[in-house]
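Tip: read the tokens left to right.
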């Protein structure tokens, strides 16, 4: 199972993991990344994520396909939320499954690095000084560069 979902609703990590692995007893490792909205009353009060339906899913599917060509994955799942989110809420889930942990761990890191820089989401943070659009950080770009051949 290789799939991508972009949704406004929250997700259940345990249910997503079970759905990913239940049909394949050859899986020996599942790596996961759960991204949360950071913030507080002093920094970020809310985050708004916008995207273009269709285009976003295709971009995430392309990232997943790249991971499949690099590592021997048995399954992978990306769930990314959009809409208005508050600090502490889940924003993204990446699950990768393989027969061995190294492939699962590396593929999970690769997918997350590429999501941060290549996924067509636009983030606006609202804080004590008002709302502002957020650009990708240089550290995110550097993390993606490490996967260049």
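Filled-in amino acids:
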């Amino acid at each position: 199972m290789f799939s991508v979902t972009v949704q406004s609703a929250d997700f259940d990590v345990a249910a997503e993991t079970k759905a990913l692995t239940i049909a394949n007893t050859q899986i020996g490792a599942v790596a996961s990344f759960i991204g949360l909205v950071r913030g507080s009353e002093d920094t970020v009060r809310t985050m708004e994520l916008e995207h273009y339906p269709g285009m976003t899913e295709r971009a995430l599917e392309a990232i997943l396909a790249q991971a499949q060509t690099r590592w021997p994955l048995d399954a992978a799942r990306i769930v990314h939320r959009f809409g208005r989110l508050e600090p502490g809420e889940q924003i993204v889930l990446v699950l990768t499954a393989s027969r061995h942990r190294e492939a699962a761990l590396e593929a999970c890191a690769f997918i997350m690095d590429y999501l941060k820089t290549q996924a067509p989401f636009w983030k606006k943070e609202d804080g004590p000084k008002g709302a502002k659009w957020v650009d990708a950080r240089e550290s995110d770009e550097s993390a993606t560069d490490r996967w260049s051949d």
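The beta strands are 2-7, 29-36, 46-51, 73-81, 83-85, 90-98, 121-127, 130-134. The helical segments are 13-21, 55-70, 101-118, 138-145.
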